[in-house]
Amino acid sequence: MTVVIPRRGIVRDERTTPGLEQLRAAIAAGADGGAGIGALLGMTAESLEVGRAVFGLEPSPRFGNPLGTVHGGVLSTLLDSAMSCAVHTSLPEGAGYTTLELKVNFVRAVPIQGGRLRCEGTTVHMGRRVATCEGRITDQDGRLVAHGTATCMVFAPPTGQ
User: Fold this and answer.
1) Closest among 44, 38, 32, 46 to 2, alpha carbons compared
2) Which residues have a Cβ under 8 Å from the Cβ of 78 and sit 6 or more positions away?
3) Could you tell me the domains of the chain?
4) Tell me, what's the pLDDT at 5?
5) Taking a C-beta distance cutoff of 8 angstroms, is the pair 121, 141 a contact?
6) Which sequence ranges are marked TM in the entry (predicted)?
């Protein structure tokens, strides 16, 4: 069963983890202006559930490269955010993570005024020390723009304090 969080539109699955709840709380706390890279780029969380995170982004002229399209670094950041947050949703209490490796394939150029982008990240493998994930960015017409994979290092929760 899925539930929509009022005011944010985030879809919730009945299954939960401490990592998912922590991520939801962090996003809710930043709802009025936000913090970090997501706020800087104007990313919005559209859906969060165990093993899956979906973010949206509206391209703007400030994301442009010299060719007049969205810079690949912005697309890479969107992929890294969705994929690693998918890992975050699967973490146990007190665990952390960081991206070790990021691979991005750009399929088509994104015009600066090309309409809203949607990026879905999912976990592929969730181990005690390593997690892998994949993601896809689509444009407003549902066409694939870029896709990628990432490897994350998982940090175990601190013991005996």
Assistant:
1) 46
2) 41, 43, 55, 57, 117, 119, 137
3) 2-155 (3.10.129.10)
4) 42
5) no
6) none
